[in-house]
C-alpha cells in the first residue's frame, strides 16, 4: 500500500476515527453509509457463499476453514492473498490511503465464480438477491460476553471503529446496540430465525473451539464436500489459533498498517472461550445477565459462556 512507503509518516495518525451514522436503524461508518445503495443492489449469483457473523464472532476463523476446504487443504493456495482480499467484505468501504480504497462490492463484482464473501450485516439488511438466488450462508455466533470483550479490544486497536471509551462505557454501548453493526442480541436472534427459511448453517464459536473436527464436518456436509480424515486433520491444524496467529495472510498484519495497531491489541488476541471472566466485575456481570435474560427471552437460542 502506498501508505507503507511514505517514510517518516506516523502511520498511527493517518486515519482519523469517525463517528457512526445509521442506515435503516443500524449504526454504520460514514463511508459505509455513503456506499450503502451499491450494497443493497448487489447482484448475488446462485453459487455465491456468504459467511455471516456479528463482528468478532470468529469470522476470520470460519473464512480460513472454508478456504481450506475449497482449496482441498492446500495451505499454499490459501496463502495466495490476505483474508481481506480472498473473500470480499460485502458492505465494507474504506479509503485506505489518498489513492487507495477498498470496496467489498467492487472486489466481489470483479471476482470470478464461485465466490465466497463475508458480511456482518444483520439478516434484514442482507441484499435481497442472496435470498432470490437461494445462496448458502454459514453463520457463526459467539457468546455475548466473549464477543463483547473481543469487540472492545478490537475498537482499541482498529481506527475504523469509533473510540470505545472505557470498558464500562463500552459494555453499555454493546448492551444498547450503539455499536458498529448494531445490536448483538438482534443479530444472533435474527439469523437464528432466518435459518428456518433459508439455506443457513448456524454454527457456534464455542462448539468449534470444543471440537473443531466435528464442526468442520458440518461445514463439509453443508458444502456437499467429502474429505479424507488426513485432510480433515490438516485443516484442523492449519486453522488452529496458534497457526493462524502466525499466518500473515490470516492475522491482518499485511494490511491496514495505518488502521490497525497490533501493539495496542493483536487481531489474533486470545482466541478463547471464557475470557470475559477476566474483564467483568461482579456488578457488571450481574447487570449484564439481568439485561441479557430480558433481551433473549423471546428466542430458543442458547449460548455457552464457558466450556
Ligand atoms: P479474541 O479477541 O477473543 O481473541 P473476527 O474474525 O470475527 O473478527 O473474530 C476475531 C476473534 O476470533 C478474535 O477473538 C480472534 O482471536 C478469534 N480467532 C481468530 N482465529 C481463531 C482461531 N483459529 N481459533 C480461535 N479463535 C480465533
UniProtKB/TrEMBL annotation:
Its EC number is 2.8.2.-. Residues 46-299 form the Sulfotransferase domain. It is found in: Cytoplasm. Pfam families: Sulfotransfer_1. GO terms for molecular function: sulfotransferase activity. Belongs to the sulfotransferase 1 family. This is Sulfotransferase.
